[in-house]
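Tokens for chain A. Residues wanted.
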């Protein structure tokens, strides 16, 4: 796998639709080779997203806005206290396997959370990252001309009751947990994020663009 630069952009807290537009724009620009690979990191305002594996009727009556999107997977919640990552990666020929891409995203989070002392794992056939039989992170991706988008959502210190009004990823809401709940101590996105960036660079064989691995909050257009 050829080592390439990765630009990490911390968007702070943003509305989902705003970042969806940004993702799609980044994909088009990456296809044209106008920008390097990017990892967008964000904390969303509360929202339910519905992937290709579910019908919007399955989240009828939820107390959040609902957005239908093109990623794989079913319905999930995004909101405060959850670290969401959207890798905009142009996959080389040796990387053009979406199952491999999913496993690598899982590996990033497994290693990052292991750095924080948490015992985490995969739970086949389900996609995502788990601990003690409960789900910490959801993953769903899409690809356009071998450029990836969408990505992972890691529950760091979020309100788990937000999952109770629907079946997240087709599962019972009680299966969802957070890093804070699983570890028994308060955790913060600020502490988790550097670990995720470090492990992302390692697992995907990218190098940070510039001396600072995190770029300004708003990418230049």
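Reply:
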């Amino acid at each position: 796998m050829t080592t390439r630069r990765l630009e990490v952009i911390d968007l702070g807290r943003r509305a989902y639709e705003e970042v969806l537009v940004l993702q799609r724009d980044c994909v088009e620009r990456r296809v044209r080779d106008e920008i390097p690979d990017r990892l967008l990191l964000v904390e969303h305002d509360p929202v339910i997203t519905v992937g290709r594996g579910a019908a919007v009727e399955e989240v009828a009556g939820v107390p959040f806005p609902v957005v239908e999107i093109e990623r794989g997977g079913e319905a999930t919640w995004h909101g405060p206290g959850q670290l969401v990552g959207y890798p905009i990666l142009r996959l080389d020929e040796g990387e053009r396997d979406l199952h491999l891409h999913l496993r690598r995203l899982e590996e990033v989070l497994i290693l990052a959370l292991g750095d924080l002392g948490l015992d985490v794992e995969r739970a086949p056939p389900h996609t995502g990252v788990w601990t003690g039989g409960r789900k910490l992170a959801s993953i769903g991706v899409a690809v356009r001309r071998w450029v990836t988008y969408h990505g992972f959502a890691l529950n760091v210190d979020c309100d788990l009751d937000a999952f109770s009004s629907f079946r997240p990823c087709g599962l019972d809401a009680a299966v969802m947990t957070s890093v804070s709940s699983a570890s028994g101590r308060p955790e913060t996105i600020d502490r988790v994020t550097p670990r995720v960036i470090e492990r992302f660079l390692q697992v995907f064989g990218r190098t940070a663009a510039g001396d600072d691995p995190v770029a300004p909050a708003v990418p230049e257009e």
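The chain has one domain: 4-215. The radius of gyration is 16 Å.
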